[in-house]
Amino acid sequence: MSLIDLTPLAVPLSANQAYRDYQEGNYAGAGLNTLGAVLGATSALAALGKGTKSLASRSVSLYDPPVKPPRPFAADYPAGAPVDATGKLTQDLDGRPLTARYVAGRNFVGEGDTGIPASAYDAIGKEGTGRFPQDVAARAIGGDAGRYVVTRNRLSGKVVDRAIFIDKNLDPDTYSRVLAHEIGHAVDELAGTIPSTNVKRQLARVYNDLSMPPTDPLRAADHRR
Which residues constitute the domain of residue 82? Predict the structure, then answer.
């Protein structure tokens, strides 16, 4: 799996942190800029108290986005969609080949969007970091629900370790949401910084959708704009 295979996950899985970074003057993909460095650490978890900064899910209050009608298929493929013999799309709406193992969005002509299944999260986490996400006690990650940690050599700046840690005591549904969020941090860091100057409003909407309950007045007002 390549970085382009992972990239479609970045927006839906890390929008909370992306908007927070933007508000602080950083970028949606600013993982590289906000992660610290330690020299010769033997593990990312051991390094948490030794200067390594991390991107974390500090709250387990993550919500589903609202259900909306899909865009008309012809709006994305006005000239017709390139498909194989089974009707599976072979290119996205920008003409890029859809060859990844996991594809978020439209997969078959005339059908709606499909998400990345939760059953794939562990494998995707391993592809991005080199190891499966690790279940740990919340106290090991400062009471956070999850953390994505990058360890760098202080002298060379080279990444020596990447890891995802999840509170092992989370209920299954919350665990999946937090793991998805941390995978999003990994995607942002691996893909590099992406300026978010022109998408502040969109990021704000996604942030509100994922961090506020559906009954919150701010979330409802945002969708009336």
Answer: 71-111
Total-model pTM:
0.66
201 and 92 assigned to the same domain: no
Q: Which residue in 126, 203, 152, 135 sits closest to 47, CA to CA?
A: 152
Task: State how beta strands 54-57 and 105-106 pair.
Answer: unpaired
- The answer on 39 and 127 residing in a single domain is yes
Asked whether residue 43 is domain-assigned, the answer is yes
Q: Which residue has the higher pLDDT, 220 or 63?
A: 63
Note the pLDDT tens digit of each residue in 207-223: 778 777 777 776 666 55
Q: Is the dihedral of CA 203, 62, 33, 126 positive or negative?
A: negative
Q: Which secondary-structure segment (H or E) carries 177?
A: helix 172-191
At 117, give phi and psi (nearest 5°).
-70, 145
Domain count, the chain: 2
Radius of gyration of the chain from its Cα atoms, rounded to whole angstroms: 18
Q: Do 41 and 106 fall within a single domain?
A: no
**Nearest C-alpha neighbor of 157 from the set 36, 27, 31:** 36
Task: Name, in order, each residue with C-beta under 8 angstroms of 87's C-beta and a sequence gap of 6 or more.
Answer: 108, 109, 110
Does 66 fall in a domain? no
Helix axes 10-23, 172-191, angle to 10 degrees: 70
Verify that 81 and 43 share a domain, yes or no: no
Contact (Cβ atoms closer than 8 angstroms) between residue 35 and residue 55 = yes
